[in-house]
Design brief:
The protein is an alpha/beta fold. It is built from 14 helices and 6 strands. The chain is 53% helix and 9% strand.
Length: 317
């Protein structure tokens, strides 16, 4: 820790989907007497367990976990609400004299917490504009909405998947309300000094092995009942336009239920989209200058060695 840096310690363990962040974070927190704050945009939802690869009681290793099952799938959750709730959890962990471990793969959520983003200074949500933009996606397709963003803010479009309607709408809304590019705003946020002394780890793996992990995890999700989970959520009235159903695994199986393609194609799409998401996550986190990259190969793909390394770095702070 820098001299005279009195900011509280926050450990971040980020990385692409299926790389093993949850297990590493739980083990680190257990050894260090800390608690874990999930930074996953899907695990916040109750009843969305299989498709979000929600950490189980056994995987928690007796370590308190926060920001899991904090809202219903029918409720909106965005970075502003997440940051407020997660920051409150972190404050309570620090008051207990423990180390908070912020772990997950949702880069925008992690940035919102680490940088202490002040959402009160941003353009507030415009329900009518959001409704109008959502209508364009529904009537003319996601591609039309994405092209609108590409014309107005190509940098932001390059960071957002064309089918991530929620984020495309938010980026367009920001441009249309402020006249400024959200990509510029995001870059400013990355340069903000954190309210925490942040020790940031980025856990990664060889591309071929990561893709194997992803494919195996999708197969396990299907075997564990993901189709039935999606059917239950659809029975609650949730659709592909619902914010909570934008997650990979959910939207593809909704397409299958709607008769857009067969089941095997849905599974293929889940695996493909998961791999593409992992690549975008790697791009996002590798731009984080303070991130210490941990390649699993460098530690013989051994979680115990990775945990010992992280704890050694933390002890030096």
């Amino acid at each position: 820790m820098e001299q005279n840096d009195n900011r509280p310690l926050l450990v971040v363990i980020a990385g692409p989907t299926a790389v093993g962040k949850s297990a590493v974070a739980a083990s680190c927190a257990k050894e260090a007497g800390g608690e874990v704050v999930s930074a996953d945009s899907m695990q916040v939802y109750r009843g969305m367990d299989i498709g979000s690869a929600k950490v189980s009681e056994e995987e928690m290793q007796g370590v308190p976990h926060h920001m899991i099952d904090v809202c219903d799938p029918t409720e909106p959750m965005d970075a502003a609400r997440y940051a407020e709730m997660a920051s409150e959890c972190i404050g309570e962990i620090l008051q207990r004299g423990k180390i908070p471990f912020l772990a997950g793969g949702t880069g925008f959520y992690i940035q919102a917490v680490v940088r202490g983003t002040d959402f009160n200074d941003e353009s507030g949500p415009d329900p009518e504009l959001r409704k109008k933009l959502a209508g364009i996606a529904e009537e003319q397709g996601n591609e039309k909405l994405y092209r609108m963003l590409l014309e107005r803010d190509p940098e932001a479009a390059g960071e957002i998947h064309r089918n991530n309607v929620k984020r495309v709408i938010r980026a367009l809304e920001y441009v249309m309300l402020t006249g400024e590019k959200i990509s510029g705003h995001n870059e400013k946020e990355r340069l903000r000094q954190s309210p925490y002394h942040t020790v940031f780890f980025f856990l990664d793996d060889r591309r071929d092995r990561l893709y194997e992990r992803i494919d195996r995890r999708v197969d396990r999700m299907i075997e564990s009942g993901l189709p039935d989970e999606v059917k239950r959520l659809a029975g609650m009235g949730l659709t592909k336009n619902s914010l909570s159903m934008q997650g990979i695994g959910y939207k593809e199986l909704l397409g299958w239920l709607d008769g857009e393609y067969d089941f095997d194609e849905a599974v293929r799409l889940i695996k493909r989209n998961s791999r593409r998401y992992a690549k975008r996550q790697e791009t996002w986190f590798k731009r984080t200058k303070e991130a210490r990259v941990i390649m699993r190969d460098d530690f013989d793909d051994d979680n115990e060695k990775i945990v010992r390394h992280i704890l050694d770095v933390i002890r030096m702070q």
